[in-house]
Amino acid sequence: MNNDIKEVLYSEDELKDKIRQMGAKISNDYSGKELILIGILKGSVIFMSDLLKEITIPCKMDFMAVSSYGSSTQSSGVVRILKDLDFEIQGKDVLIVEDIIDSGVTLKYLMKYLRARKPNSLEIICLLNKPDRRKVDIDVKYLGFDVPDYFLVGFGMDYAEKYRNLPYVGILKDEIYK
Ligand code: IMP
Ligand code: MG
Fold it and tell me: What span, in angstroms and rounded, lies between the C-alpha atoms of 144 and 107?
């Protein structure tokens, strides 16, 4: 285990199992639809790529990049679009893929932004959720795990751009970010 990690919260196997279930459910729910998955860079990339492999119906992938966090661990509440979609989503069934929801500010903003482009449907799939930190209401269609209010890294999630490559979700040691 990485020396900066206090505890492994979800192992690679636990994550794979959960993602397999989510992929099966999506494949069933969206059968016959024009599904587009939109990954929010960069935290969602590992979740997104594992999830895509578990989806058995035709689908497209796209990415957006937004900024709401610097290298600090607190949400600024300000969301900026750094990279927009390559595809038109009008009339399509869109699933936003996120690593973790904290305040909910990022997704709230993105939902409003994307809804204006008139997709047929617009939903959220999120691997992890911190319910205790929520500031705005968000409906999440597919959720992996509710997690306690710790700063988590790995499986795509970073602290100051580090730890994204860890194959598990871990709790960062307090002394690293305090
Ligand atoms: P929100 O807008 O406050 O919900 O922030 C969501 C974004 O903050 C996520 O997509 C992550 O990129 C980042 N984030 C929130 N909590 C954590 C965490 O515990 N570890 C790493 N990134 C986090
Ligand atoms: Mg993110």
Answer: 16
- 139: helix, strand or coil: coil
The pTM score is 0.94
- Assess whether the C-beta atom of 110 lies below 6 angstroms from ligand 1: no
The finding on whether 69 has its CB within 6 A of some atom of ligand 1 is: yes
Domain boundaries, the chain: 2-177
pLDDT of residue 69 exceeding 90, the answer is no
Distance CA 104, CA 12 (A): 25
For the Cβ of 50 lying below 6 angstroms from any atom of ligand 1, the answer is no
- Please check the confidence at residue 75 and state whether its pLDDT lies above 60: no
Whole-number Å distance between alpha carbons of 26 and 28: 5
Look at residue 27 and give its three-state secondary structure.
helix
CA atoms within 13 Å, Cβ hemisphere of 37:
27
- What CATH number does the domain located at 2-177 have? 3.40.50.2020
Residues in the chain: 178
The predicted structure's pLDDT at residue 67:
84
Give the Cα separation of 133 and 6 in Å (integer). Answer: 21
Known catalytic residues are 102
The DSSP element (H or E) to which 61 belongs, if any, is: strand 59-67
pLDDT tens by residue, 116-169:
999 999 999 999 999 999 999 999 999 999 999 999 999 999 999 999 999 999
